[in-house]
Automatic annotation (TrEMBL):
Superkingdom of the source species: Bacteria
One Pfam family hit: Cu-oxidase
InterPro entries from the UniProt entry: Cu-oxidase-like_N, Cu-oxidase_2nd, Cu-oxidase_C, Cu-oxidase_fam, Cu_oxidase_Cu_BS, Cupredoxin, TAT_signal
Residues annotated as domain Plastocyanin-like: 55-169, 229-291, 379-486
Protein name as it appears in the record: Multicopper oxidase CueO
Reaction catalyzed: 4 Cu(+) + O2 + 4 H(+) = 4 Cu(2+) + 2 H2O
Subunit structure: Monomer.
Keyword Acyltransferase attached: no
Keywords in alphabetical order: Metal-binding, Oxidoreductase
EC annotation from Swiss-Prot or TrEMBL: 1.16.3.4
Keyword flag Oxidoreductase: yes
Length: 488
C-alpha cells in the first residue's frame, strides 16, 4: 500500500501541472503569504559577536486562517540568518523552550567536535547552551538545524532550520544587499492538511525507507511566494532544507543562470546552467540576470532519485511544479555583477591521502522487498556498512591535518552523504569526473551509485563529542544510517 504521503508525490506533481496559472491561483484554501518572507539578519559583528537564539514552538500560517503548530528559532518557524566573519569568535547562547531535548548543529561550519552540536550535545528543556564558535573558513552559505538522535527528522520537519552566511572580507563585486539582491531561499517540501493546516509526522514504513516527501513546496516558510527583485543581477542563496526530496530547479523561461558557490564556498569561476539539482542539505549560490525585467517562475521537476520506488510513483509524470515567482522592479544603484573569476580553490592532490575507507549506505531495500529493523529478529538493514548507528561506537579514527579518500556506495536509492567537521572535494561520481558546479568544496554529495571523496580533516573531535557522517535523508539518519569519527 502506498501511504498518503507517498501517493502525494505523484498526484501533487500532476495536479499542479494541470493548472493554467501554475500554482499561484491554487484555489482553496488561500495561501497566507504571497510575498517572499525574508528572514531577519543577525550580523554577529553588529552584536559584538554575541548572539542569542531561543528554540520554541509557535504557530505559523501556511494557509490563511489555519494556523499550523510549528517549531522555530527565535520565531514561530525557521530562524534568523546569522552572519559571521572569518577570524571572529562568536558567543552563541541557545535556549531550549521546546519542551523536549534538542541540539543545534552548525552544518558546514568548521568547528571542533565539542561545539559542533551533534547528537551528544543535548540541550535539555529549559537549558541554555553557550558554545563559542571560532570562524575559520572562507566565505560560504551554511545552515543550522537540530540533530538529536531519532528526533532530527521531526524537529526539522516542524520548522527548525536557519541559514548562516560566512564572510571573509574578499569583495568580488557580487550582489550583497541582503533581502534585496542577495536572497536567502530555504526550499522545503511538506504535506500540509488543507482543512486544518496541520503538518503531521507519523512515519509509515515507506516514509522511513524512502524519506518523507511532500506535495507542497515552501520557500522561507511560504507556499509559492513572489519575490520582488531589482533589475540586474540577483544572488539567490539556495538551501534544500527538505527531509528527503531532491529538487531539480529551473526557470520556466529556460534562462541560463550561473552557479557561483557550493556548500563550502566559491567555485573558481561561474558555471552557466539551466537546470540545477539540489539535494537535502546542499547549498548553491547562483546569479540570475533580471535586467530584462520579465517576471519568471522558478520551478522544480519530479525527484528522479528514489530508486525502484521513484520508478513506481513517478511513472508517467515528467512535469515541473512551481516553487516561487520573481517580479522585477527598477535597477538598483548598488547593483552587483557577474565576475569572470571567483576564487581558485586549492588544487587537490589525491596522492596526499593517507588512507582509503569505504562506506556502503543501505536503506533496507534489496530487490523488491523492504525489510525493517528487527523484524523477525533480523538486524537493521538501514545503516552504513551493514551496521546501524551506535552512539557508543567510534566508527573511524582520523588524524588532524591529513586527508583521506572516502568511497561512498549507495544501495537501494540515491543517498545525500554528509560529513561533519570537514570539507571534501569530489574526485569522481560513478567513476567519472564530476560536473563543474560540483568541483568546489562540499559537505554533502548526492551519491547515486558510487562517489570518491577527498576529505580534509582540519578540526579536532575527541571521543565524547565525535563528528558524525550520515545520509542527510533525515529519516535514514534517524533510523541509523549514521556513523561517527574522531579526529586527533
Ligand atoms: Cu546537516 Cu549531521 O547534519
Ligand atoms: Cu552537518
Ligand atoms: Cu539515505
Amino acid at each position: 500500500m502506498l501511504t498518503r504521503r507517498a501517493f502525494a508525490i505523484g498526484a501533487g506533481a500532476a495536479a499542479s501541472a494541470s493548472l493554467l496559472d501554475p500554482g499561484f491561483g491554487r484555489g482553496e484554501p488561500a495561501r497566507a503569504v504571497t510575498r517572499l518572507p525574508v528572514p531577519q539578519l543577525i550580523d554577529a559583528a553588529i552584536h559584538h559577536n554575541a548572539i542569542g537564539l531561543t528554540v520554541s514552538a509557535g504557530h505559523h500560517e501556511f494557509y490563511k486562517g489555519k494556523p499550523t503548530r510549528t517549531y522555530g528559532y527565535s520565531g514561530p518557524i525557521l530562524g534568523p540568518v546569522l552572519r559571521f566573519r572569518r577570524g571572529d569568535h562568536v558567543e552563541m547562547s541557545v535556549r531550549n523552550e521546546l519542551g523536549v531535548a534538542t541540539t543545534v548543529h552548525w552544518h558546514g561550519l568548521l568547528v571542533p567536535g565539542d561545539v559542533d552540536g551533534g547528537p551528544q550535545r543535548k540541550i535539555e528543556p529549559g537549558a541554555t547552551w553557550r558554545p563559542t564558535l571560532s570562524i575559520d573558513q572562507p566565505a560560504a552559505t551554511l545552515w543550522y538545524h537540530p540533530h538529536p538522535h531519532h528526533e532530527t527528522g521531526r524537529q526539522v520537519y516542524l520548522g527548525l532550520a536557519g541559514l548562516i552566511i560566512v564572510e571573509d572580507g574578499h569583495d568580488l563585486g557580487l550582489p550583497d544587499q541582503f533581502g534585496v539582491d542577495d536572497l536567502p531561499l530555504t526550499i522545503q517540501d511538506r504535506v500540509i492538511d488543507e482543512t486544518d493546516g496541520s503538518i503531521g509526522y507519523d512515519l509509515s514504513e515507506l516514509d522511513v525507507v524512502y524519506g518523507v516527501r511532500g506535495d507542497t513546496v515552501i520557500v522561507n516558510g511560504a507556499i509559492t511566494p513572489t519575490a520582488h527583485v531589482p533589475a540586474g543581477w540577483v544572488r539567490p542563496r539556495l538551501l534544500n532544507g527538505s527531509n528527503a526530496r531532491n529538487f531539480e530547479l529551473r526557470f520556466q523561461d529556460g534562462r541560463t543562470f550561473h552557479v557561483i558557490a557550493s556548500d563550502g564556498g566559491f567555485l573558481s569561476r561561474p558555471v552557466p546552467m539551466s537546470v540545477l539539482r539540489i539535494s537535502p542539505a546542499e547549498r548553491f549560490e547562483i546569479l540570475v540576470d533580471f535586467s530584462g525585467g520579465q517576471p519568471v517562475v522558478l520551478e522544480t521537476g519530479p525527484d528522479r532519485s528514489m530508486g525502484l520506488f521513484g520508478a513506481i510513483s513517478d511513472a508517467g509524470t515528467d512535469e515541473y511544479a512551481p516553487v516561487m515567482r520573481f517580479e522585477v522592479g527598477s535597477a538598483s544603484e548598488t547593483a552587483g555583477r557577474l565576475p569572470s573569476q571567483l576564487v581558485e580553490p586549492a588544487a587537490i592532490a589525491p596522492v596526499e591521502a593517507v588512507r582509503r575507507r569505504s562506506f556502503v549506505l543501505n536503506n533496507g531495500v534489496c530487490g523488491q522487498r523492504t525489510r525493517m529493523s528487527n523484524h523477525d529478529g533480523m538486524p537493521a538493514l538501514i545503516g552504513i556498512n551493514g551496521r546501524t548507528h551506535d552512539p557508543n561506537r567510534i566508527d573511524a579514527e582520523t588524524k588532524l591535518g591529513t586527508s583521506e579518500i572516502w568511497e561512498i556506495t549507495s544501495v537501494g536509492m540515491a543517498h545525500p552523504f554528509h560529513v561533519h567537521g570537514a570539507l571534501f572535494r569530489i574526485l569522481s561520481l560513478d567513476d567519472k569526473s564530476p560536473p563543474d558546479h560540483l568541483k568546489g568544496w562540499k559537505d554533502v554529495v548526492l551519491v547515486e551509485g558510487k562517489a570518491e571523496l577527498l576529505v580534509k580533516f582540519t578540526k579536532p573531535a575527541a571521543r565524547g563529542y565525535p563528528f558524525m557522517y550520515h545520509c542527510h535523508i533525515l529519516e535514514h539518519e534517524d533510523a541509523g544510517m549514521m556513523g561517527q569519527y574522531v579526529c586527533t
